[in-house]
Amino acid sequence: MALVQVNPVVGDLDGNVERIRRVLDEVDDCDLAVFGEMALTGYPLEDLVLKPGFVADSQAALEKVAGASGDCALVVGFADGDEDAVYNAVAVCQGGRVHGVYRKRHLPNLEVFDEVR
C-alpha cells in the first residue's frame, strides 16, 4: 500500500493528472495507492467550482487517471457533481475504470472552506 502526498496545483487538472500518473509509475508493484482529498483538482477550489465546465473537466480528468490505474487500486479525491450540486468526492479506480464514488457529507463552512455553497 502507498499513502501518497502530492502537491496538486489548484485548477491544473492536466498537471495534476500527470503528477498522479508519475506516482503510479513509481509504485507499480503496489496493490493500493491512496491519494489525498482533492488530489486531482487541488484544494481549496473556492469559486473555481462555479466556472462552467470545471466539474465536467474534473470528471474527465478522473477517467484519465482511472485509465492509468492498471492492477493497482487507486483512491483519489476530485470534484464531482451533477446539474444540482458540486461535491467534494473520492473515487476508487482499478483496471482502467472507476469502480465507485463517495461524496463527502459533512462540509466545513468557515473562511476558505466554504464548501456548503
Fold blueprint:
Elements: E1 2-4, H1 13-26, E2 32-35, H2 54-67, E3 73-81, E4 86-94, E5 97-103, E6 109-110, E7 113-114
Parallel strand pairs: 1-2, 2-3
Antiparallel strand pairs: 3-4, 4-5, 6-7
Helix pairs in contact: 1-2
Task: Please characterize this protein's 3D structure.
The strands form 2 sheets. This protein has a 5-stranded mixed beta sheet with strand order 1-2-3-4-5, covered by helices on one side. α1 runs parallel beside α2. The mean pLDDT is 90. Helix content is 24%, strand content 31%. The radius of gyration is 14 Å and the shape is globular. β3 and β4 form a beta hairpin. With 117 residues, the protein is α/β, with parallel strands linked by helices. InterPro entries: C-N_Hydrolase (IPR003010), C-N_Hydrolase_sf (IPR036526), NAD_synthase (IPR003694).
Order of adjacent strands in the largest pleated sheet: 1-2-3-4-5
- The class by helix and strand makeup works out as alpha/beta
Which blocks of ≥5 consecutive residues have pLDDT under 50? none
The gross shape turns out to be globular
- Let me know the number of strands: 7
Counting H and I runs of at least 4 residues, what is the number of helices? 2
Taking all residues together, what is the mean pLDDT? 90
Could you tell me the radius of gyration in angstroms?
Answer: 14 Å
For the biggest sheet, the summary is: 5 strands, mixed
GO cellular component, one term: cytoplasm
Protein name: CN hydrolase domain-containing protein
GO molecular function: glutaminase activity; NAD+ synthase (glutamine-hydrolyzing) activity
Keywords: Ligase
